[in-house]
Amino acid sequence: MIELHTPLTDECVAGLHVGDTISLSGYILCGRDAVLPRITKMIENGTVGELGVNLCGQVIFHTAVSPAGVGPTSSNKLEIESSMEQLSKAGIKLHLGKGVLHRETIEALDRCNSVYAVIPPVTALLGAKTKEQKLIAFPELGMEALHLIKVDKYPAIIGAAHGSSIYE
Length: 168
Hints:
Helix content is 24%, strand content 23%. It has six helices and ten strands, in the order βαββαβααβαβαββββ. Strand 7 (130-137) and strand 8 (146-151) form a beta hairpin.
């Protein structure tokens, strides 16, 4: 496991290789298809400094931030993938998301000494650990019907116990 801390240096990124597992700490940016094209326009017209953050050495996570949490969106969406080269030229060193990128994007990242890391969606992780499933009731509700599943080593964190909560 390679531990990385933001902001990332050119030397750090140059030492990363396909298949490396990383642990990332520090501040990172979060944005996806609605916001990334706006940021690239700001880069183009020289107003990106108005954001109040330095893009040099920064990481951008292709996600939305909601009360439910964060999870990667598909990085190969047109609005996201087409922004990656310009964001990398502006200083982004690591793009976090999910999905396969086009060859042209991979080559652009290489030219800019930037990398892409995949964060598996939680549903994929849990899906691999679900061994059986059975519809119990309310089939008309589709995926929201009552199901019984058999699981193997689901990861979880106790969120509340004995009158305390991790959200307090």
